[in-house]
Fold each of these.
Amino acid sequence: MTLAGAVATGPDLLRLVAVPVFAWTAYRDIETRRVSSTVWIPLSLLGTALLLWDGWLAWHAGGTAWTDSFLIPTAISLGLVVPIAYLFWWFGGFGGADAKALLVLAVLFPTFPEYALGSWTLPLESTTTVGAFSFTILTNAVLVGVVLPLVLAVRNAAAGRIAPVMIVGWPVAWDRVPETHGRLLETPAGLSQGGLDLDALRMYLRWRGLSLAELRDRPDRYRDPATLPAEPNPPTDGAVTADGPVRGDGGTLESAAEDAGLERGAEMASASDDPWGAAAFLDDIDGSAYGTTPETLRDGLEVLATAETVWISPGTPFLVPIFVGLLIAICYGDLLIGTFI
């Protein structure tokens, strides 16, 4: 609790360091869909130190402060939020960065902070269904995440973009696809919510040394796996910006030098059973490419080879709802309680 005349306790003031850090991770999630794991280490260490500091203050405060104000919410935070984050990551509901962010919040914000601003005390709404502040942040983030698809649907409807996938995506021109994060919502059979991951697309193009424009110029040529490069490039992790130069596969089928260099591609697959060399690519990289199958890769390439505009799902960069949920929790409190109860 905040001492009389004080803005907040020392631990609560130091916890505000997390706000700009989470703002930065939310920005990185939008721009790159990648957040380095090293960003969570200092926050974890800070959270552990503040947890010990809070325990010391509660122990010396006497009364029920130790059990009611510290021990119970800390036990709930570590015993409930941590398993929830792990289970959602395990079942694919969260990305690795999302789960790590929630684990950090469980350590950093187990108890409700208080910030005195003149006659105001934040959070404004201190009532909660569960005593752990990290759980309030989580429920706030989930509510924000639920609202985002509705906002997307309204935007599409206002622009006249009416489609079955309007709640999860929007159309983009083909030349923006290489710089776009998300998932293709189209297959040759029509709209679908299980299309090609665009990170996997970038991995494939870099592996072959191609741009999407080159592939569209000569789709029949690149559909033939005999044109696979003899020495493929590293596929990278599919990020929009790749480190290092990408070597083009060069030449044409009429070139004798290329014919000799592409013997490896001809050995890896035949045109009849591996269009685009999709299976050869996935076998060669010895990885999952975000769960992409040869069929999914082929379908995506067939669409992108001719379509001028395609529907893309940006997905939900969940670090954004987490950051917004953190801000709402600090300023207002439990959005679930305030909205529905």
Amino acid sequence: MYYIDKPEKSSYDKFRIYKIKKGDTLESVARDLGIDAQELRRYHNMYCEIPDLIEADFKSYLEYLILAPEKSIEAKKEQTEKKYQKVSLASNYTLPFVADKINNDYQVNYTTVFGDDVDTIEMKVSVKWLATDRNNYHLFEINKGSIYVNNTIPDTVMDELAAKTASVLYPLKIVVDESGKWVDIYNYDEIENRWKDTKEEVLDYFEGEVAENYIEYTEYALENSERLFESLSSDYFLRAFFNGIYVSYTSNYSFQNEVFFPLEKDEESKFAVQQKIDSILDESNLVKVEQKGDYVDSGGEASFGFDPWKGKFNASYFLDEHSYCIEKINLECSIEYDEPIKVIVQIESLKNEVTQN
């Protein structure tokens, strides 16, 4: 809408104003005041009279420009500066792993796709740092809450049996190296002793072939520490959270890497990825780390004359700008078999919800 006639002068006494001079433009005034031009126009248009609205630029008759209060301007400047704040790394472009800052609860969601079958699993997981040794290996305690499958708590006898046998693992204490990668189980003996009591409860409450199979499977997994580690290697949370992202990067904040993830049954899927850190904090002032790449086919199919399998791996880690602790993870990997398989892992800190309560 355009106004040709000059309107009557309005009183803007209650506002902080700028008197427009001959030759002034929106861009030139914004530059002189150190304020974003769009922000300058937005604030003026919120409080001015309708005839004084700024469209592409100042109207020829416009005498006064309404400015935001000083505090508002300073806040905007700080926000703008923060928006473009560079991520700080340690020596050798290493992403710091500040293990002793990690004591948090997370909401965890898995979505698994196999052909036309889609399942979702939800749970809460707590991660707590306990200690660090002289070799810079870290001890963590992991606990898991109730598990929901497809938005409901499992209530069949088989589900109860699975939950009962799985509960023997927690609290789980694990060893994590200086890059944030899970490398060992610390409390194997404690878990084995818990199983002795749990096994008696299972035998008292459950019976039949299914119960016997669960007991046999659990005892196989608990035969020794190495076998338990191998069994837990298919745990999506442990693999995604303790993925070893705290390593040295190049001067351009990226490098080529190989990532292994338990997507295939009883096998490690291999992906060739570009791993990089966004050099600038994101809009939520978080450090963003990405792993993005393609599935590396083992070559077995090609030897029989079939086309190599293809797949993708995409993971985004969002870290606190000060502690570098994980605030959120979005991970998705897939392989195009005859029936495509895909896993989506979403992990998000519950810290904000606790603070609000």
Amino acid sequence: MKRLIPYIALAAFASVPLWLHDPYLLNAFITTGILIVAAMSLNLLLGYTGQLSLGHVAFFGIGAYTSALVSLGFDVELIGGIRVVHEPWPVWTGFVIGTLVAALCGYAVGKLSFKVRGAYFVIVTISFAEVVRLVALNWVELTQGPLALTSIPPMTLGFPGVGYLDFYSKQSNYYLVLAVLVVSYIVIQRLVYSRVGRAMIALKENESLAVSVGIDVTRYLVLAAVFSAGIAGAAGSLYAHYLKIIDPDVFAFLYTVTMVIMVISGGKGTLAGPIVGGLIFGFIPVAARSFATPEIQWILYGLLMIIIVFVLPKGIVPAVEKWFAAPSTRAGPEPLQAKMHDTP
């Protein structure tokens, strides 16, 4: 039965556009789904390697800006009078390139910062995110700065001579986000259950012991950073092509905090944790908006987070798994006890 839960959940989410026709709620599902993909990428670092990245939104924003610029085109002058002119490319290439550029940045940051883990790693990631934000804010010729990149085309899939599929409607964007979420889930699942994933978990549990048996610390942590950054970049690309406008606020620290809350509340180090935490904290503002002011909404948001941390310190998903496993655990010794009593 446990193996069927992901398929049942997928079927339930796939049916949402069939019965939900409220544009506002469908928009909430889409934006929450994008943030869940980003939270899943953060969970790969925080949950499976134990490394907290408070600058993870940088990769989200890099994916968004790269994908938008590839699909819009640009004309900029670099140092030395060199002019770079890029004509617009198909939107799907922007998604691919945005993901790859974010992954490459993850490699660079990981290679530099995993030599100074702990609090130093957190500082490096925050600094990187702030540098990228300042670049987006001040390189007006490329990013339009605070004026924002506008008229970003919607996601389009297809090839010349074959046909194109444009994601204009909310229903089509919902299925696009769901597809990327499922693919991201599968990639993370395969990685976690592989030899690489076991090495990552070993480093989180006991780094000294892992090193003593020959596990290369930097190699596996950098690999986790690459996958994590790439998936975050894919989420950022979806965000840009769905909203069709982005500005430097996409690098706001609030987005990283939201991802961390989703991961910790749902259960870090679990595949379903970011999804459960994302659905809960993604829809709290939607549910509270009908009866509470924005200030009260934030108070409710904070109170729920405090309650979860104190009552379910390991997160919602581990608590539910433990609750379902408890009856079988209690029932396990009974046959043995009965057998001992029946033995002459």
Amino acid sequence: MVTPVTLNFSAPRRGMPPTHMADLSRKDLQDQVKQLGLPKFRADQLARQYYGRLQGDPDLMTDLPESARSVVREALFPPLMQPVRHMEADDGETRKTLWRLHDGTLLESVLMRYPGRATLCISSQAGCGMACPFCATGQGGLDRNLSVGEMVEQVRNAAVAMRDGEVSGEEGRLSNIVFMGMGEPLANYKRVVETIRKITNPSPEGFGISQRNVTVSTVGLAPAIRKLADEEMTVRLAVSLHTPDDELRDELVPVNNRWSVEEVLDAARYYADKSGRRVSIEYALIRDMNDQPWRADLLGKKLHGALGSKVHVNVIPLNPTPGSKWDASPREVQDEFVRRVIAQGVPCTVRDTKGQEIAAACGQLAAEEN
């Protein structure tokens, strides 16, 4: 039996960072540039440098007059994050970075190279208030929401790493973004939506990554899922369900005490209908906890009934945290679980896990550092 835990929806404990250029809309950037005594066209130059050329240092922006660079740096490019360390795995194809923010807060991002694509897993909060007992981040609690600038900077730094061949030793392009790092993205709703637009808008207003290559993960904040659907974007929604029954989900995913499995799946169906995208159901398979054959059958039946053909299940072998009582299911149990879900007419695959030897489960590096 899992000990029930209390959700932490209280205010984050630390202050937000200074305003960065990435926090600003195009109009706000133009206004800021004007206030600095620079002509309006400098705003577009800065945006092209930042989003198009991935340049985050005004001193290296050669089309900006030298006399203006220090002023621009001080006003628009405050240092938001510094790498504490990088860790590599999978023959250099996976790189996890631990970042220290301006206030000392720690967060993580993971850059993963696959055949034909490169995916960055970014954090949306420092810590997490959802309190899922098998998650290292959830057990650490919530420090604060991240700013748009802090999320965008994770993306820019990863895009630079791909461009410069820092991952697997080859030049490449960042193609996919998943909001699956530390935090609950929909609990930082407004900033996450703004960040998605910065990621997907064409240069000079964004990095130009396709919305279809962006995934937002949530533990199931049903009203926010519906609100996201009404944004009329084409990002993929991933719901961390982890069990199909309310009794166990109340314990594994405490937010289920507010929004039941049925409510979450109804919201997911609304999202699928509005976006035209299949919804991913994330299911961390935990030994002797949620891996029973009857739960696989029930999961398949509920998903087929609620979402029809607009759903796909990602079974995730649990990446246990050090000292945790939680463990991954045996391979034969995992295979049987997948087989049973598929037998109910629902596509189901096992996620290709990367970086286990470098504590790549979100929150592990930050927990170790603390």
